[in-house]
Amino acid sequence: MMCSEVSRILDFAANDRVLEILEAIEREEISDLKKCYPRSTLHYTIQKLKRANLIERRIHRYELTQLGITYLKMIRKFHRCLDRFHNLMDKFPDHRIELPEDFVLRLDELGEFDVVESQNTDVLRPHRIVLGQILRSKEVRGIVPILYPDYPTVFREVVSKVDLLEIIVTEDVWKLVEKYDHVEEHTGKFRVYLADKHPCISLIVTDTFFSAGFYRRSGDFDFWRLLISNDKSATRFGRDLFEHYRRISQRVL
Q1: What residue numbers bound the domain in which 67 lies?
Q2: Where is the Methanogenesis regulatory protein FilR1 middle domain positioned along the sequence (predicted)?
Q3: When you count CB atoms within 10 A of the terminal residue's CB, does the N or C end of the chain come out lower?
Q4: Is the pLDDT of residue 4 over 70?
């Protein structure tokens, strides 16, 4: 039953005509579609939607059923997430964009984002731009599967500016971080969590922005290209993604 229901939703989601008709019925503008489709095509699709209990005839017009209202919301969500995923793939064509299942279905929350890349005359441009955003923030959370060579200097600068700094690290990164003398000095506002497994993503999320970096399919991390967004929905997405990984990580500091 579940598989057939999912198949039906995907079948409708893949059909642009179905979406257009459902939205026209929602707006009470079904008559406008007579100019766009042959009468036989429109009749066939409407009958299909009636049999699926997505629409019903009420006096002189069609209306969405409760199931139809829900399906339409799901189809719209599916299209938005798929569009955002293709947008990501266009910007990161050789990368592994791997997210927990629940977050794949929230990709539309990324909203508008920019991709910051290194330049021949400014190789560290992505790193510099993200650091500038961090230093203007109050709370900073990050997933750190790699460590920049200037970590000690950057850490001291960041921890002196922010109210809270939380990071999730891999075992390899933690072995490096715990060696630094400065770690114990800032335990009041510095927290470190050890990831249960490699998260396959780097992210920084603050009260004002969200940034993410991805691994290439070859296995190496792309230091030279980062996604950045100041969209409120993107920062919410980033905070929730951080919390997802924090819940399955162990606090070590």
Answers
A1: 2-75
A2: 125-247
A3: N
A4: no
pLDDT of residue 103: 96
Contact between 214 and 92 under an 8 Å Cβ cutoff? The reply is yes
- Strands 95-96, 210-216: pairing is antiparallel
The last residue of a domain, from among 75, 109, 137: 75
pTM, rounded to two decimals = 0.86
> Total structural domains in the chain?
2
Positive or negative, the Cα torsion across 104, 106, 107, 108? positive
Judge whether residue 166 has pLDDT over 50.
yes
Question: Of 184, 173, 186, 180, whose CA–CA distance to 249 is shortest?
Answer: 173
Torsion of CA 87, 90, 93, 96, to 10 degrees: 0
- CATH classification at residue 122: 3.30.870.10
Residues 143 and 70 reside in one and the same domain: no
Tell me: do 20 and 140 sit in the same domain.
Answer: no
Which residues have a Cβ under 8 Å from the Cβ of 78 and sit 6 or more positions away?
9, 13
User: Which of 17, 41, 75 marks a domain boundary?
Assistant: 75
Q: Which of 139, 154, 157 is nearest to 206 (CA)?
A: 139
Residue 1 has pLDDT above 50, yes or no: no
Give the SS3 label for residue 36. Answer: coil
pLDDT in tens, 174-214: 888 877 765 556 667 889 999 988 899 999 999 999 999 99
